[in-house]
From TrEMBL:
This is Myosin XIX. It comes from the Eukaryota. It comes from Canis lupus familiaris (Dog). Residues 35-297 form the Myosin motor domain. Residues 1-20 are annotated as: Disordered. GO terms for molecular function: actin binding; ATP binding; cytoskeletal motor activity. Belongs to the TRAFAC class myosin-kinesin ATPase superfamily. Myosin family. The lineage of its organism: Eukaryota, Metazoa, Chordata, Craniata, Vertebrata. Keywords: Actin-binding, ATP-binding, Motor protein, Myosin, Nucleotide-binding.
Length: 297
């Protein structure tokens, strides 16, 4: 199909190619601005060019979610957009009679899945697959979904239920720095790239309130321990351990009269500047907020 768009086809295909080109021109110069197309199934003709042009127009208009039938396409804005993930917006999608009529959003997917569980007498497990290339925003999206469920999968009237949901979300998010230390690394595409797959299970009780969670990891990229591509790094943990060790090496203890008492640190033991200088030679890439930072250990 794409060959025809580019005009490379010959023979009887050429006629079809000509009409496709006309359709393409008509679509691209249509009255409705491209960024208003919130579902890629409305794109006509469906070619790589029209789909990409539509997504590009939406990206330029700061619209980062687009439906593609029952699939949601998320574009990485590469900048913080707090109002797109506010608690107020979560509640709006949760309370909407038909969330799919609102603008495409990851909260629509979250809410639809939640309602699927709620509406069934014998609930069926629901799964959300977040996939994409490295740096696309999968980890970010999973975090958004967990935050969403912590807000909606709690009784609106029970303070205790809210606390439980919040605590479960917090525990999962708090386990991230540890898991990411051992499983994430700086790559050319993503400073904090997950080098393993994650299956996160959220458990609900019969009243559809969150009661527990489990995280399973799989397919860790073990070969990274032994070798990394040029300008890429090993797992964060190795740099963190090294920075820990360098800190310890710089600590000096005061002589103690009584060995049964805890050691006292010497006054000049605060040596972060020196450690920073020692280890910064390993750090060749710009850091982002939230990425383990060598100097801080
Ligand atoms: N919706 C978003 N809003 C703002 N920033 C985002 C969003 N999604 C992703 N980002 C930014 O893009 C970076 C990369 O995203 P993320 O780590 O989620 O990618 P990934 O798909 O998990 O990549 P990998 O497969 O390498 O682990 C994040 O650190 C964040 O800065
Ligand atoms: Mg990731």
């Amino acid at each position: 199909m794409l060959q025809q768009v580019n005009g490379h086809s010959s023979g009887s295909d050429a006629q079809g190619g000509g009409s496709l080109r006309k359709d393409l021109q008509k679509f691209l110069s249509g009255e409705a601005p491209l960024h208003q197309l919130d579902d890629l199934t409305k794109v006509n003709p469906v070619t790589l060019e029209t789909v990409l042009r539509c997504l590009q127009a939406r990206y330029a208009a700061d619209t980062f979610y687009t439906n593609a039938g029952c699939t949601l396409v998320a574009l990485n804005p590469f900048k913080p957009i707090p109002q797109l993930y506010s608690t107020a917006l979560m509640r709006e999608y949760h309370a909407a009679p038909q969330p799919q009529k609102l603008k495409p959003h990851i909260f629509t997917v979250g809410e639809q899945t939640y309602r699927n569980v709620k509406s069934l007498i014998e609930p069926v497990n629901q799964s959300i697959i977040v996939s994409g290339e490295s740096g696309a925003g999968k980890t970010w999206t999973s975090r958004c979904l967990m935050k969403f469920y912590a807000v909606v999968a709690a009784s609106p009237t029970s303070w205790e239920s809210h606390k439980i949901a919040e605590r479960i979300e917090q525990r999962i998010l708090n386990s991230n720095p540890v898991m990411e230390a051992f499983g994430n690394a700086c790559t050319l595409r993503n400073n904090n790239s997950s080098r393993f797959g994650k299956f996160i299970q959220l458990q609900l009780n019969r009243a559809q309130q969150m009661t527990g969670a489990a995280v399973q990891t799989y397919l860790l990229e073990k070969t990274r321990v032994a070798c990394q591509a040029s300008s890429e790094r090993n797992f964060h943990i190795f740099y963190q351990v090294l920075a820990g060790l360098l800190h310890l090496g710089n600590i000096r203890f005061a002589d103690s009269e009584d060995e049964a008492q805890p050691c006292q640190l010497m006054g000049d033991a605060k040596c972060e500047d020196r450690v920073g200088a020692c280890v910064s030679g390993f750090d060749h890439t710009p850091r982002e907020q939230g990425t383990p930072h060598l100097e801080k250990g």
